[in-house]
Design goal:
Length: about 450
């Protein structure tokens, strides 16, 4: 079921007494936008891309400058930190020396999808102020016959200090046998590692989220898998969330790629194409749990199926979920979706009413609410622990370069407290939406009295 071609934008619902009031940061057509709870634009920063995060001191960590050649493909030239006025505070490019289309050579960060300032995660948005080393997700083109007969777009995570020196790195292809792929999945991957056509390297693992765990009760209970320095990652293509041991690089905890692997994973259910995974930091409700946006859509590798003749993107689902999981017990603590439960049990027929098959984000807020970005449609909702929507916003800005149905899309959205910005807090006004059955656009009339136009069909 699709949405109508005409729909309201901006804030469509707001209960100021129950929402976590602050500003929301997201990237759209005008640039990196900061809005208040009533949808008013407070600030726009131009010249940066959608991989951006607010830092605790009011600065922003972001990427800028697209790379037009391989291993570009969504990668950016530079990682920057800038302040409220757009003044650059830090710059990193010295990762890969690359030859551009015009024949010139330059250093580029080759960053994509996620990055963070490593710290104790003391703030609502799971960051701490600079200084601190920066964790960056990057690409690297290579050939590994163990994985595929084709060239690969591998994932490389680097840690960079304030002087721009790489002090730690991790390469995905070196841990291929630690991701839990079946023999059938490996065979399909070997033949087709998700190339975009021609000789483009295969995006075989496609990481879209990396985050240090930070202080947590699991490690304090002597479970070394959850050392605060360890890194949790999301592989969209493998349908897999995993934790890297920072010291050894080994995968020490994993959910996916096949939920049938354990009873606990089966109870959680198959994750597909997930985004924005992280461990909820101390001081925030749900601390120590892993939260993620489980997109659905398609992903994974397997033996060939009737909907995936080559065994690529063979795992599919028509709805999304937000999952909060205790990583020690592997039990679902909280879930948001449109799955219904009735006398006949679980009903997924209308679950597609909450569905974003790509991008999207989730953020646990200090009052226990959860900010959810349904990225494909650019719709943000803030829901209570009881799953009631107390704030709703539809991105009004269209990306004219994108296909029509993707023009409102938003990669991630972050809520920050009012005092994050060096300006006076705005006025808050409740927004009570009209009832859908009586909401009309000009020229569309109310239905009228059904009794006045009704007749009974009578048997002869």
């Amino acid at each position: 079921m699709g949405r109508p071609s005409v729909f309201p934008t901006g804030v469509t619902k707001y209960d100021r007494s129950r929402a976590y009031n602050g500003y929301t940061l997201y990237h759209s057509e005008p640039g990196l936008c900061l809005i208040d709870m009533n949808g008013r634009l407070v600030r726009i920063w131009k010249g940066v891309n959608n991989t951006a995060k607010p830092l605790a001191d009011g600065d922003i960590l972001a990427c800028r400058g697209s790379i037009p050649v391989a291993p570009g493909r969504g990668s950016y030239k530079a990682v920057v930190v800038f302040d409220w006025n757009g003044q650059e505070q830090w710059l990193f490019t010295r990762n890969i020396r690359m030859t551009m289309q015009d024949g010139t050579s330059e250093w580029v960060a080759c960053a994509h999808h996620d990055l963070e300032v490593i710290g104790d995660k003391k703030s609502v948005f799971a960051q701490e102020a600079m200084p601190g080393n920066v964790l960056i997700l990057t690409h690297k083109v290579l050939k590994d016959e163990k994985i595929s007969r084709h060239e690969l777009l591998d994932e490389r995570i680097i840690e960079v200090d304030r002087d721009g020196e790489t002090v730690w790195e991790w390469n995905a292809h070196e841990h291929f046998d630690e991701f839990g792929l079946s023999d059938e999945a490996k065979t399909s991957l070997y033949e087709e590692p998700v190339r975009a056509g021609g000789d483009i390297p295969g995006d075989w693992i496609h990481l879209n989220a990396i985050s240090t765990l930070g202080a947590n009760s699991h490690y304090e209970s002597r479970d070394k898998r959850f050392h605060p320095d360890n890194i949790i990652c999301s592989s969209r293509q493998l349908n897999c969330v995993f934790i890297i041991d920072k010291q050894s690089g080994a995968v020490v905890w994993r959910l996916g790629p096949d939920c049938r692997e354990t009873e606990e994973a089966a109870a959680i259910g198959q994750i597909i194409g997930q985004h924005c995974v992280y461990m909820i930091p101390k001081g925030v409700p749900g601390e120590g749990n892993v939260i993620l946006y489980d997109n659905g859509g398609f992903g994974g590798f397997s033996a060939p199926t009737p909907v995936a003749f080559d065994g690529v993107n063979s795992v599919r689902r028509h709805y999304s979920r937000v999952l909060e999981i205790d990583p020690s017990t592997m039990k679902t603590v909280w879930e948001y979706s449109q799955i219904a439960y009735g006398p006949m049990g679980r009903i997924e027929m209308c679950a597609h009413n909450f569905f974003s098959p790509y991008i999207s984000s989730v953020q646990r807020l200090p009052n226990g609410n959860t900010l959810i970005n349904q990225g494909a449609d650019g719709q943000f909702i803030e829901v209570t622990p009881e799953k009631e929507i107390v704030w709703e916003y539809q991105n009004p800005f269209k990306n004219s370069k994108a296909p029509t149905l993707m023009q409102n899309s938003v990669y991630r959205a972050y809520r920050v407290p009012y005092d994050w910005a060096p300006i006076e807090a705005p006025e808050e006004v409740n927004v009570v939406p009209p009832e859908p059955e009586t909401y009309r656009v000009p020229g569309s009339f109310q239905s009228g009295d059904p009794d006045a136009v009704s007749v009974s069909v009578v048997e002869p």
